[in-house]
Amino acid sequence: MGHQVIIFDFSLIRGLWETRVKKNKERQRKEKERLEKSSLERIKQEWNFILECRKKGIPQSKYLKNGFVDTDEKILEKYGKTPQLPKRRALADETEKERSKFIFQLAGEKWTEFPDSLKEQTHLKEWHVNNTLIQTIPAYIALFQDLRVLELSKNQITHLPVEIGCLKNLKVLNVSFNNLKSVPPELGECENLEKLDLSGNLEITELPFELSNLKQVTVVDVSANKFPSIPICVLRMPNLQWLDISSNNLKDLPQDIDRLDQLETLLLQKNKLTYLPRALVNMPKLSLLVVSGDDLVEIPTAVCESTTGLKFVSLKDSPVETIVCEDTQEIIESEREREQFEKEFMKAYIKDLKERGFASVTLQ
């Protein structure tokens, strides 16, 4: 008996492979269409459209119909060409030109340190430095006594200098999505600070007690870090209105959280909470509370029933579903990028939620 020889028809195999590729491309096309029709994409489109209308000076009544945004491009064409706009634009341009004299801007990965010429411009009121490879803030920042805004997000900064405490007129400090692991006590000397954003640094576990001196702070964002509890200094900020401590390691909330009697928004999603204290009901101005997780077993009835006018939102642990395409690079690769993406999503979601006025929502 002779040997059996198996012969492959390569043309057939090639045909099968091409069919598979076509099906894969079709699947990607349908997925793209689905994403374009998703609520997130719609919210983003509506938000961008509103921004464009505002830039063109178009009255809100022209693009808002019964609480919904009319994204018809004809609105931009029709109402974006009124005779008053050239004068408004000229005035806005002049104002922006004057303002730019006091603003320092820097962006791009080619920058690994601040330019030497910066130290001579102590008249500046704002620094905007983003998406660079800069790791260190120079000590000469103490010379910038008129500085109001220090916006340093998405860099590689590893620490804040103690000289930051010299900035007595500083109102906004944003060092989100850097590589910070701690905050110097001297920051508590920035007595006029109103907004503090430390989100997305991933490794911060505590804040110094000296930050209790920040009596003017209204916004604190420490999301996407490793806080095991709400820092004591935060509980001693009497004017705090917005607290985002989502994506941390919280297991419980302090029983005296109601001392934050000016707090309006509290974001707690993506923690390890098992219960919510009844003290939340005693917070007269709290209007939005967001939580998540299957570990929550105890929630005050008054919170759920919104007897205080509170908007209570319960999310799954992953409010944003990551779409993974096997044959493309369209995935969110790092934890920092994922947190940044989810943060933008939550901003759009919360804005939409407030506008629609929902009292209690569970997002499945």
Largest sheet: 11 strands, parallel
Nearest-integer average pLDDT: 80
Per the principal axes of the C-alpha atoms, what is the gross shape? globular
Instruction: Give the helix proportion (percent range).
Output: 25-40%
**How much beta, percentage-wise?**
5-15%
What strand order characterises the main sheet?
Answer: 3-4-5-6-7-8-9-10-11-12-13
Give a count of the beta strands, DSSP E runs of length 2 or more: 13
Number of helices: 7
Features:
disordered N terminus; globular; eleven-stranded parallel sheet; 364 residues; single chain; 7 helices; alpha/beta; two-stranded antiparallel ribbon; 27% helix
Commentary on this structure:
By secondary structure, this protein is an alpha/beta fold. Helices cover 27% and strands 13% of the residues. The chain contains 7 helices and 13 strands. It has helices spanning 10-37, 39-55, 73-79, 84-100, 232-235, 301-305, 335-356, and strands at 64-65, 68-69, 103-107, 126-130, 149-151, 172-174, 195-197, 219-221, 242-244, 265-267, 288-292, 311-315, 360-363. Strands 3-4-5-6-7-8-9-10-11-12-13 form an 11-stranded parallel β-sheet. It has a two-stranded antiparallel sheet with strand order 1-2. Helix 6 (301-305) links the parallel strand 11 (288-292) and strand 12. The model is unreliable at 1-10, 318-333 and 359-364 (pLDDT under 50).
Task: Give a quick precis of the structure.
The protein is of the alpha/beta class. It has helices at residues 10-37, 39-55, 73-79, 84-100, 232-235, 301-305, 335-356, and strands at residues 64-65, 68-69, 103-107, 126-130, 149-151, 172-174, 195-197, 219-221, 242-244, 265-267, 288-292, 311-315, 360-363.
